[in-house]
């Protein structure tokens, strides 16, 4: 299994690195450029016009390799369907953002995410015979993770790096699970390789952005993998950065409304708070990566401790 994972990771990495330069040129030709929010940090205005929708190439490479080498059977249908369906939503959102400056409305986006999440949660229930009461919880976890990664995707390399570390954690969990889940581990390895290839072009200063096509779909897929490995309770720990970023947004908005215009943070989500506090973008990203690595290690440690208790 280990050799297959390494080969899959390296193949996904190589394909993204090879295909990304012509893909970036295609995005530029089609005018798929990032529209920077005027209410965001002014230092980000230099990023105006950077190609976006880089996540679509990640999805295409991962699905292409996986479907070519692995049969769709058992619980592996759920993460593959999630990656494709939520990726389609994100790609449409990226397209509309590039063309009009406004993407899909938040309510419409949430509705599509919820429909996909409920379908996938039902599929997981049917495959693993889990109690029906968990379907709403599973759907909530999928939607929450999807939007959490989307909120985190605000600095060069931030979402891509933290996602890679989170998928490494769940790849290890899938390998060591009882019984082992080799297909889930292989899919995770492909995503890790593709993300590393993407980061080659996304680290500061970014040549391409992930876009909603990547952040929404990969966040949702992370939650699905947590569900099918039976470790969704450690997902908030392994994805700690995504949780903290989301909570900072919720706290900021809630306090702003309740206090009549006061703020807890200089700007939300949290990475912008540190940015306005004088931290360099690279420093924020690297420090968040470090927290993500440590959180992943703790999550895997809790998983191993649970296995030892059952042994």
Question: Could you give the topology of this structure?
Answer:
Blueprint: H1 2-30, H2 54-69, H3 77-100, H4 106-128, H5 134-152, H6 158-176, H7 182-202, H8 211-228, H9 235-238, H10 240-259, H11 270-276, H12 281-310
Helix pairs in contact: 1-2, 1-7, 2-3, 2-7, 2-8, 3-4, 3-8, 4-5, 4-8, 5-8, 5-10, 6-7, 6-8, 6-12
Please provide a written account of the structure.
The protein is mostly helical and 311 residues long. It contains twelve helices and no strands. The chain has helices at residues 2-30, 54-69, 77-100, 106-128, 134-152, 158-176, 182-202, 211-228, 235-238, 240-259, 270-276, 281-310. Helix 2 (54-69) packs antiparallel against helix 7 and helix 3 runs antiparallel to helix 4 (106-128). The protein is globular. The relative contact order is 0.15.
The general outline is globular
Q: Any low-confidence stretches, pLDDT <50, length ≥5?
A: none
The total count of helices amounts to 12
The largest sheet is: none
Estimated share of beta-strand residues: under 5%
Radius of gyration: 19 Å
- The proportion of residues forming helix, as a percent range, comes to over 70%
Please tell me the overall pLDDT.
91
Q: How many β-strand stretches?
A: 0
Distance between the termini: 23 Å
Structural class: mainly alpha
N-to-C order of helices and strands: HHHHHHHHHHHH
């Amino acid at each position: 299994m280990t050799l297959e994972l390494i080969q899959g990771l390296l193949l996904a990495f190589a394909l993204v690195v090879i295909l990304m330069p012509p893909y970036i040129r295609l995005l530029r030709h089609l005018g798929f450029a990032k529209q920077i929010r005027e209410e965001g940090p002014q230092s980000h205005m230099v990023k105006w016009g950077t190609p976006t929708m880089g996540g679509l190439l990640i999805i295409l490479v991962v699905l292409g390799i996986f479907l070519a080498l692995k049969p769709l059977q058992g619980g592996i249908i759920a993460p593959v369907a999630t990656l494709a369906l939520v990726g389609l939503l994100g790609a449409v959102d990226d397209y509309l953002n590039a063309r009009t400056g406004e993407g899909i409305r938040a309510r419409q986006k949430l509705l599509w995410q919820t429909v996909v999440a409920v379908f996938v949660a039902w599929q997981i229930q049917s495959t693993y015979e889990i109690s029906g009461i968990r379907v709403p919880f599973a759907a909530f976890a999928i939607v929450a993770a999807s939007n959490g990664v989307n909120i985190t995707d605000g600095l060069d390399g931030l979402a891509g790096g933290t996602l890679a570390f989170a998928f490494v954690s769940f790849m290890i969990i899938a390998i060591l699970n009882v019984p082992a889940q080799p297909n889930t581990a292989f899919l995770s390895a492909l995503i890790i390789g593709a993300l590393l290839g993407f980061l080659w072009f996304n680290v500061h200063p970014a040549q391409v952005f992930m876009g909603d096509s990547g952040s929404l779909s990969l966040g949702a897929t992370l939650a699905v993998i947590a569900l099918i490995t039976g470790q969704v309770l450690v997902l908030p720990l392994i994805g700690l950065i995504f949780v903290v970023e989301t909570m900072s947004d919720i706290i900021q908005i809630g306090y702003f409304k309740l206090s009549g215009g006061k703020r807890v943070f200089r700007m939300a989500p949290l990475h912008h708070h540190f940015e306005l506090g004088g931290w360099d973008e690279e420093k924020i990203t690297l420090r968040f990566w470090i927290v993500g690595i440590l959180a992943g290690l703790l999550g895997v440690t809790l998983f191993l401790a649970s296995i030892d208790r059952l042994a």
